[in-house]
UniProtKB/TrEMBL annotation:
This is Formate dehydrogenase subunit gamma. It comes from Phreatobacter aquaticus. NCBIfam families: formate-DH-gamm. The keyword Membrane applies. GO terms for cellular component: formate dehydrogenase complex; plasma membrane.
Length: 340
């Protein structure tokens, strides 16, 4: 009997609760907007600015798993990084690369190909050993693929995606990503060898000042400021490759192994360094490739056969020719009259 009285009381209470809540439920909108009353990103950011407890630079929640990074709800610096990544980076890259191409076209139209002023002597002298050329082409080959696949990461979705379609672009971009990650290693090795083999010829000295004062003789035909094995311009290229390549290596390492970086902020920093240095170095290397191939008669031989024409060497590296002769590497009879 006591049980049935309790059941009755419960039934009455339930009926009362339903009766009271029915009008409230009836007022609810028929279609529910689940985000209508949730906190917006903007509100969270404002709260963060007002000093809501977080970890200082991020807005954090409470979690029970060991990796505390997962507690971050919002990292406001990520917005600045996104503006760089989706905007500034495109502008800097576009201006640096297209600007360099425009300068080179203008230079070619104004100056034409830099010819061997006295014409080829027909006597070849060794400029780079097989090892030096191997090191050059290993580093250069890797750099070219790294540059193209890196540019694809930045510009591919605008340039290649419309051309190849989603399937084709996916194939190219995934292959490119693997190439980028794996060729970074022989590139770094090449940088180390390049540094060891050539650093001794790339220490700046007073001869470089004179070379720079005369604009490297680039603007006027027949002007050839003296230079040793490498002139001031080439020393600039060397140090750009070593310092720029070094920065790309360090920043790239953190991007391949993100857990080794000191958090998301550090990763964003390295990502910005990687992107900016890459596009600037690519622009510099475009100039190098131009002058080492179509821009100057006789230059490419140095990195293909390893031997250059004596008159080319006398015009562009007169002091190096003298050094080589004094070491007995050039037949003194072949030297004849110095080329300007
Ligand atoms: C198709 C691409 C390239 C061509 C045709 C080319 C050509 C040359 C030539 C002809 C030289 C010797 C210049 C001389 O005898 O005085 C040279 C030197 C050099 N190259 Fe390249 N190169 C290319 C790509 C690269 C790349 C991608 C890098 C670095 C990532 C690089 C780094 C260097 C350095 C550091 C030197 C020594 C300094 C200098 O001569 O400027 N090269 N290259």
């Amino acid at each position: 009997m006591r049980v049935s009285l309790r059941s009755l009381a419960a039934a009455v209470l339930l009926a009362f609760a339903v009766a009271v809540s029915a009008p409230v439920l009836a007022q609810q909108p028929s279609s529910v907007n689940p985000t209508a009353s949730s906190v917006k990103e903007q509100q969270l950011l404002e709260a963060l600015r007002a000093g809501t407890p977080g970890t200082g630079t991020t807005l954090s929640g409470r979690i029970t798993i060991p990796d505390q990074r997962a507690a971050n709800l919002i990292q406001p610096q990520g917005q600045a990084w996104r503006v760089f990544h989706q905007g500034t980076m495109h502008w800097v890259g576009g201006i640096a690369i297209l600007g360099m191409l425009a300068v080179l076209v203008a230079f070619y139209l104004f100056r034409g190909r830099i010819m061997i002023h006295k014409g080829p002597a027909g006597i070849r002298i060794l400029r780079f050993t097989t090892f030096e050329r191997l090191v050059h082409w290993m580093t250069a080959g890797c750099f070219l693929v790294l540059a193209l696949t890196g540019l694809n990461i930045t510009f591919g979705k605008y340039l290649l995606l419309p051309l190849f379609g989603e399937g084709g672009f996916h194939a190219v971009a995934s292959l490119g990503k693997y190439a980028h990650n794996y060729l970074a290693w022989p590139f770094m090795l090449g940088l180390v060898f390049m540094f060891l083999v050539w650093v001794v010829h790339n220490i700046p000295n007073s001869i470089d000042m004179e070379w720079l004062k005369q604009g490297g003789g680039l603007l006027k035909p027949g002007v050839h400021p003296p230079a040793k094995k490498f002139n001031a311009g080439q020393k600039g290229i060397f140090w750009a490759v070593i310092i720029g390549g070094g920065l790309l290596s360090v920043s790239g390492f953190f991007l391949i192994f993100p857990a080794t970086a000191d958090g998301v902020l550090a990763l964003q920093f390295w990502n910005i360094v990687h992107g900016l240095v890459a596009v600037l170095l690519i622009a510099i290397m475009i100039a190098h490739i131009y002058i080492g191939s179509v821009g100057m008669e006789g230059a490419a031989d140095a990195m293909t056969s390893g031997e250059v024409d004596l008159n080319w060497a006398k015009e562009h590296h007169s002091l190096w020719v003298q050094e080589e002769a004094s070491k007995g590497r050039i037949n003194p009879g072949a030297l004849g009259q110095p080329a300007e």
